[in-house]
Amino acid sequence: MEKQYKLLRCGRLYDGVTAEWKENQSILVRGSRIEAIGTEVPCPEDTEIIDLTRYQVTPGMIDAHMHMDFFDWHTVREEVYASSEEAKTIAIIRCAGKALARGFTTVRHVGGITSNGYGVLDVKRSIEKGYLTGSRIVAAPMFLCSPGSHGDLSQGYSKNPALSAELQAHRSTVGNGPDFFAGAVREQIKYGSDFIKIMATGGFFTPNDNPMQQQLSDAELQSIIRTAHEWGKTVTAHVYTNELMQKMIRFGIDGMEHGSLMNEETAAIMEEKGLYLVPTFSPYEEAVHYDAEAIKLKQPEFRRKLELYKDMLQAGREVICRSHIRLGYGTDFVANHQNYESGYEYEAWMKSGMQPFRALEAATRVNAGILGLQNEIGTLEVGKIADIAAWKRDLMSDAKALLDCAFVMKEGKAYRAESCLE
């Protein structure tokens, strides 16, 4: 029988509250929550002792931008239409389990890349009930988008209009007009979506669009944001350009994803408003820290656009890194790493000159706030859920440290840890 109390003896501890490492700390866990933390912690009878003194201990990490519904980034395009919804749900289960083993106790699914259904919500509920083992999931099953846009993957079949139209019809959140999108928001919330995700601009991954395009009208964007807020849900958007970012700020959006082409003016507005940005550095690394050979490994359209926009991506990265925007940590791995290998984003932050504590704060306390779970997770404090991870390498100096998980606990239960480097 599992013991009621667990005492974790830590090496160095980052609690997510202050940007420092604390020495000689212990964490007493009772059931699923933290009972005590500090240098003088009681040890009740019949307590399980867990020795983490060789490791750096942190809150369980959070990935705030994940697409969980495919098995392998090398075959993600084939999986869009060659896999069943059941197979995509199995992929989500696998991703949740592997993410947890790598120290990411919570993930945020920002719309299915391959999936047209609600399997992610079934997986989320099954994990919550203890039927499945995996990271805690916060999810928007489908993103809202227009025909031919970055979110409409049937654009890859645009030379066969009849087939493309048939495939487009299977995505219930692809449409036109303010009324359509108001209804789509209500339906997503009806079926259990935790928040609303918009595909506002084109992107790098899709063949027939580009990141400079506004792909929803002002009226459509306003309808989405207004309806979601009326129903008590937050809204985030895939977006790159300054004009559209500033426009959506005026429309009342809660936060944004990517923002990779932003300038100082946009950054200043976001700072003033206190809005969050999940910048997803890693997918653009080959362009920002230019590597022509690595770019050749991308899909043809991704290669072309990274080359075309590399100067703008480099300038935008510098703006983000210098800013005081409330930055979250998210990966968006669909074209360079497996979706559960969330630690690679830490390497991108470090290579960009970010201070390690800012990256750790983004992946813990800030992300908990973005997900609306700041009262439960994101920091190691008395009364909070015992989501805890430990790492073999020095998080202050080793860019690969967040790839090398030594220990993971979720809701007071320890799980087998895995390293992405083995």
Q: What do you see in this structure?
A:
The chain is α/β, with parallel strands linked by helices. The chain contains 13 helices and 16 strands. Strands 1, 2, 3, 4, 5, 14, 15 and 16 form an eight-stranded mixed sheet that branches. A five-stranded parallel sheet has the order 9-10-11-12-13, sandwiched between helices. Helix 3 (119-128) links the parallel strand 7 (104-110) and strand 8 (136-140). It is globular and about 70 Å long. The model has no long low-confidence stretch (mean pLDDT 96).
Summarize the structure.
The protein is of the alpha/beta class and 422 residues long.
The major β-sheet equals: 8 strands, mixed
Strand content: 15-25%
Helix residue percentage = 25-40%
Uncertain parts: none
Instruction: Please identify the oligomeric state.
Output: single chain
Termini separation (Å)? 32 Å
Number of strands: 16
Structural class: alpha/beta
The 3D shape can be described as: globular
- By DSSP (H or I, 4+ residues per run), the number of helices equals 13
Mean pLDDT score, rounded?
Answer: 96
- Write the H/E string, N to C: EEEEEEHHEHEHHEHEHEHEHHHEHHEEE
Over the alpha carbons, how many angstroms does the gyration radius reach?
21 Å
What topology emerges from the helices and strands here?
Layout: E1 5-13, E2 22-23, E3 26-30, E4 33-38, E5 47-59, E6 61-66, H1 76-82, H2 85-101, E7 104-110, H3 119-128, E8 136-140, H4 161-169, H5 178-190, E9 196-199, H6 218-230, E10 235-239, H7 242-251, E11 255-258, H8 264-273, E12 276-278, H9 285-288, H10 292-295, H11 300-322, E13 326-327, H12 344-351, H13 356-370, E14 388-391, E15 405-410, E16 413-415
Parallel strand pairs: 1-5, 6-7, 7-8, 9-10, 10-11, 11-12, 12-13
Antiparallel strand pairs: 1-2, 1-3, 3-4, 5-14, 14-15, 15-16
